[in-house]
Amino acid sequence: MRKMKTGIALGAAALIAAGALARTTKETMLDRLQIEDLVIEYYSQLGGTKGPDFGNEYTEDGVLVLGTREIKGREAIKAMYAGLRPADPSKPRVRMNVLVNNPRITVTGNTAHGEFIYTGVQVPDPAKAPEVHEQGREIDEFVKVNGEWKIKRRRIINDANAGFGAAPPAVAPKPAG
Q: CA-to-CA distance for 135 and 161, rounded, in angstroms?
């Protein structure tokens, strides 16, 4: 029993030293969960049917950064998403499920900073295995408005550059020799 208590104490000390427990307290746990729910709901709409309120996750002056593009204001963000159409509208839309992982959220009063990893998985042919469509990170700033968390600024970094964002910089070949 003593070994178990010592192990638990050492594990807790390691977590505290790493800062994991310092960021999440009893007071901030509900806020963190609400922010995670907000991000998951946002991404679930991207993978399926976007409802008429899609984009309301942002503050009125919210900002969405996609590569070198910066979309400012909730209405502009909603319009940008509403304008996304499949290349061939006569074909059925390929469903994309977005997985959100490794949330790192720090809550400070009515503001929060969050970093997540996302992976978009598509099934273009039901007879074949799913394919990873895109993968990247996002860095977000949140604010609590009338008791509800909203996105103030979201920066999406597509590591594979398969979707949104600027084209990757051209890499010049290295000279031989």
A: 8
Confidence of residue 82 (pLDDT cuts 50, 70, 90): confident
Phi, psi (rounded to 5 degrees) for 170: -65, 140
Alpha helix ranges (H) inside 20-161 = 20-23, 26-47, 74-82
What are the boundaries of each domain within the chain? 26-158
Find out whether 15 and 23 touch, Cβ atoms under 8 Å: no
* Pair 143, 31: CB distance under 8 Å: no
pTM score = 0.73
* 55 to 51, 91, 152: CA distances (angstroms): 9, 26, 12
- Phi then psi dihedrals of residue 50, to 5 deg: -80, 125
pLDDT at 20: 45
- CB neighbours of 144 closer than 8 A, spacing ≥ 6? 31, 110, 111, 150
In DSSP terms, 58 is beta-bridged to: 151
CATH T-level fold of 26-158: Nuclear Transport Factor 2; Chain: A, (3.10.450)
The chain-wide mean pLDDT, for the chain, equals 79
**In which residue are the tokens 């746990």 written?**
29
Structure tokens at 75: 């209405």
